[in-house]
Amino acid sequence: MHRRGWSAAVVVWVLLAGAGCAAAAGGGSQLEVVDRHGVRLASLPLAPDGRWCLRWAHSVTGGAVADCFRVDGGGMVLEASFLHDFAAGLGNTPGRGRLRSAEGGGYWIEGIDRALPRATLPLRVGRPDVGHHITSGAHRLDLGPLAAGQGVRIRPAMARAPTD
């Protein structure tokens, strides 16, 4: 390889390695929702601390439920869950986090710290009245209009440059 070609290859490698290190160190700057074919349906900016919650209404009681995550080092970790009560299918699994009463009612299970395989949350989006939505900082993304009744995957994604 000529010296000039070798230099260009090194520059490309350094740029790509740097981008990969930035992604691993800070996680994604966005979450993306993709369909079963991997087609991006939507994205949402992540709060600076990488935290976000999936929120919905319990299908039987209509009470609030949430699973809260952290994008960290390129992975995704379930940190806590909120339960409005111990309705059908809800509760605390012994040894999985700490249960505490929430101000205003309900319960938080904190300290779950469970890494998700491949930094991906698979989800079957519920009916519109279930109200599946993602929040991160001041941002909100309603999933029902995008994919009610369909399977999606929620995962970190690096911010994409705007296209003209």
TrEMBL record:
InterPro entries assigned to the protein according to its UniProt record, in alphabetical order: DUF1850
Signal peptide residue numbers: 1-24
- Give the UniProt keywords, A-Z: Signal
Name of the protein: DUF1850 domain-containing protein
Check the record and name the Pfam families matching this protein: DUF1850
